[in-house]
Amino acid sequence: MTKKSFIFFSLLTLLFLLPGICLAGQEKIIFSYDVLSSVEYQKSASQWQITQNSDSGLYKKDDGMMLKNDGGAYLIYPFVFSYHDYDQLKIIFYSDQPATILLVPDVTTIGSNSFELRKKVSAQESYQTIDFSLRHPFFKNKVQDIGLNFYTVLPSNLVIKEIVLVKLDFSEVILQVFKDYFLVAPYSAFTVNLFPTPRIFGHDALIYFLPLILLLAWLFFKSCRFRKIAGIILLLIWILIDCRMSYEFFVQGFDDYRNFVTPPQAEKKLRTYDDFYQFAGWLKDNLSKEYSEINFYGSGSVHLPRLLQYLAYPMLINNEENIGPVYVTYNRHDIVYNEAEKRLYQGDKPLSEVGELIANYNKDSFIFVEK
Amino acid sequence: MILAWLKIILAIILLWPRGYLLVYVIDRLKNFSFGFKFFVSFVFGIAAFGLDIFGANVFGGFKLAPALFLASAVGQAISLEILIFFLERKFVYPKPKKLVGFLKKQWQNFSLWPIWEKLILMILILILVVRLAGSIWTVVNIPTYDFDAWNNWNLRAKVIFTESKIPLDQNSPFYLGGGIGSYPLNDTLFKVWLLTASGSFQESYINFASVIYYLLLLGIFYFSFSNKTPRLLKLLGLYLLSGLPLLYFHSHVAYADLLFSIFLFLTVANLFYWLAGRGNSFFYLSGIALAFSIWTKNEGLAIILPLIFLTTIVFLVLKKCNFKQLFFYWFWAAVTISPWLTFRITNRLNILSGDSSTFKLVFNYQFINELISSVFLRSHFNLLWLLVLIIIIFQIKLIWRRMSLRYLTLTLVSLFLIYNGIILFTDKAFDLSALARINMQLAPLGVLFLIFFLRQFFAKINNNK
User: Fold this and answer.
1) Which residue range is the domain that position A229 belongs to?
2) What is the structure's pLDDT at A17?
3) DSSP-derived secondary structure letter, A353
4) Are residues A59 and A81 in the same domain?
5) Residue A141 lies inside a defined structural domain of this protein
């Protein structure tokens, strides 16, 4: 490379990196005790709101603000920005219950969501930091607001110290590429058909390497000089993808090991079906063989009646019907046993004839048999 | 527990002689290598056994009890032995001395390999062991989770095993075992056999079938190559196929796509090998594999059958085969699949998975991005389809030089267009759930294409030097 071309390429690179370098490190704190108690914020029309929670207040605790969460509270903030303005959203907080945090762009209108904008955290007593990459198509155009959903199985107390929007520098953006590439989507009922990952900035990862792959293929076929090296690089890319996907299988297997294989029977949970497999086992153990069919009332997934049909065969599963004397509920808050009348009620309406509760799996899951 | 697993392994081995004798009868010209025959015998044994007990139960009214299973596994082997005796005046039986000799020869060959090739083989074996261990761990520890597995394939196995018969009441939700009634029963009846052998219903026993399919696919793929194919290319092909993410994923998912992909591979690849001049046995084996593909998934009947029919007519027109060959190809295929086809026609089962009567042509333009992403960009198949596409576009001249590679390319492209055309241009695409899986069925053929293209490409380079 000549001196001239070296200077040219250096300037070109600098020009390319300049916007990132200039804006790098910019931060905007959008949530903290100081921000929320400032006069500027108090007068502003853009204020944090709490929805889907019985308590809509925030309480000072330590150097943060406490949210008394029923289990699905949303923190909503009207703020217009795109990923050209900020690359990352950082939350410094702790929760006294294991929680799933979901960042939802345009929460009051479209409410987009993706596994990349979901993080699971364990219960802690000291602050932890989680960050969401905003380099995602959802943030390409200006979003009008954002929502943070704090999902916990039981009611929880969350103490949030800070929520910050950050502009990353170039090296941090590159690091984000690797983080995105190795992010594994959770196993879902649809994974058997389509893998959602690997992705980079919310797009299929391979799309960024297409020009390189085409160039390598061209060199392999056309260039005697570079054929060998092009072939080797293509093979290395193949091996890299192989490693990445093997890592995906390992992570999914490890999740299964942690959530389903090793926990005691009562705590086993399998992927999106939670404890349903344990429930099905419990049902078979607790229902007399004399009953050949049941009326099943479940909640959580539309697949549950069919899945139970497989798990409980030869028992026949009637989905939300009134055939025969046996009623089985799974996590149905709306169906209760009326102790005084000794029958089941769905809301205000009686669902069954007089009978008795045979066994309880949990508060909302039980076996009831009519007399 | 260990005893049950031993019984399952024994049950799988018990189907092998029946398959081996069938392959032996087809290979009267002795075109096949032992390794190829060894692995094909398992899948042929599984499929033929399933068809036998299906016919015995549905048409003969026999209960699906151990006696019937054993009678089918052994009885059919005996009748094939008699056929072989009439044809060759000898009985085929295991010859341990020959097997020892075969293994010794393999070891001697291996010891002559250059050290770095040995190293590559060792690494590949290690990779395969890790992959298999991962799949086995999953099927042993994780219950059936994926939709079609518990809504169709495993449900049917459970129902048929519990009832000891194939339910034939069309009004019952458990007609043919439940789920979608038109699905063929190859995978299901193999699983019923495994359950019968073990004596009880355990999810891990039937989910183990997928690991077996994966192993058999790899074995058949590797040993389908002739000795003329450079060893490194064969090993490369095995590595590429074993690690295709979606294909490997299905080695621990209780679907029938992997089993179907084996029969599809055998149907198309054997015609390719026959065109490449490796002998007529490959031609006839293709016909039987086609029959078994129909017995495995509906794509066999709706897509593979018409395509192969047209292909063989073209072979006749081009005088690649004569009428007698063509007749035997289709005659034995028809005889093999007749129990299932007769049943399917008389009971008016749908041709496709859903209601065939409402088949409409539409343009699902909204699926185009998803299709491109899923097939080429999302690592379901690593770089496979991207490389195949690049090669077909930029190296078509080289491909066109040889009839066999030309045939493989045209078949691959046709299948790819038909498969994805159904997604793009019919109302049967539903929710795209089959999109990546149907392209997975073609993946072994894609890798075969890649390896034979590379062989031809390197041969051209060496000639130019």
Assistant:
1) 203-261
2) 55
3) -
4) yes
5) yes
Domain harbouring A127, CATH code: 2.60.120.260
Dist. CA B247–CA A267, nearest whole Å:
32
From CA A258, how far away is CA B372, in angstroms rounded? 35
Asked if B355 and B298 touch (Cβ cutoff 8 Å), the reply is no
Surface of A (313-342) touching B: CB under 8 A: 313-314, 316
Contact between chains at B379 and A245 (C-beta distance less than 8 A): yes
Q: Please tell me the distance in Å from A21's CA to the nearest CA on chain B.
A: 31
Shared-domain flag, residues A208 and A305: no
Contacts of A307 in chain B (CB under 8 A): 150-151
Asked if B433 has any chain A CB less than 8 Å from its own CB, the reply is yes
Give which of B443, B441, B437, B440 is closest to B147, Cα–Cα.
B437
- Specify which residues A74 forms β-bridges with: A51, A149
Neighboring chain A residues of B251 at a CB cutoff of 8 Å = none
Alpha helices in chain A (DSSP H): 3-23, 33-37, 39-43, 170-181, 210-222, 227-256, 276-286, 304-312
Are A249 and B248 within 8 A, CB to CB? yes
B206 touching chain A per CB within 8 A: no
Q: Give a yes or no: residue A69 inside a domain.
A: yes
Any residues with CB less than 8 A from the CB of B23 and at least 6 apart, and which?
B32, B37, B40, B41, B44, B285
Domain count, chain A: 3
Nearest CB to A194 within list B149, B374, B461: B374
Q: Which of A204, A242, A271 sits opposite B145 (nearest CB)?
A: A271
Residues 6+ apart with CB under 8 A from A259: A268, A269, A270
Tokens of B23: 């392959």
Residues A67 and A98 in one domain: yes
Q: Which of A214, A226, A242, A292 to mutate to test the interface with B (most CBs of B within 10 A)?
A: A242
pLDDT by 10-residue block (mean), chain B, 465 residues: 92 94 95 94 96 95 90 88 92 84 88 94 96 97 95 96 96 94 95 95 95 98 95 96 97 96 98 97 98 96 96 97 96 97 93 69 88 92 96 95 96 96 82 87 98 96 83
3-state secondary structure of B72: helix
Instruction: Identify the domain boundary among A261, A284, A308.
Output: A261
**ipTM for this prediction:** 0.94
Tell me whether residue A152 is in a domain.
yes
One-letter identity of residue A298: G
Residue A116 forms contact with B (CB below 8 Å):
no
Under an 8 A CB cutoff, do A249 and B373 touch? no
My answer on whether A95 and A228 are in the same domain is no
HEC secondary structure over A165-207: EECCCHHHHHHHHHHHHCCCCCCCCCCCCCCCCCEECCEEHHH
Sign for the pseudo-dihedral over CA of A40, A42, A43, A49:
positive
Give the pLDDT score at B449. 98
Contacts of B152 in chain A (CB under 8 A): none
The answer to whether residues A295 and A245 belong to one domain is no
B372 to chain A, any CB pair closer than 8 A? The answer is no
Is A234 near chain B, with CB under 8 Å?
yes
Interchain pair B155, A310: CB under 8 A: yes
Q: Distance, in angstroms, between B176 CA and closest chain A CA?
A: 14
CA distance B419 to B413: 10
Residues 232-261 of chain B whose Cβ lies under 8 A from any Cβ of chain A: 240, 243, 245-246, 248-250, 253, 255
Same domain, A338 and A320: yes
Residue A15 belongs to a domain: no
Same domain as A305, residue A281 = yes
Q: Which residues of B touch A236 (CB under 8 A)?
A: none
**Are residues A257 and A310 part of one domain?**
no
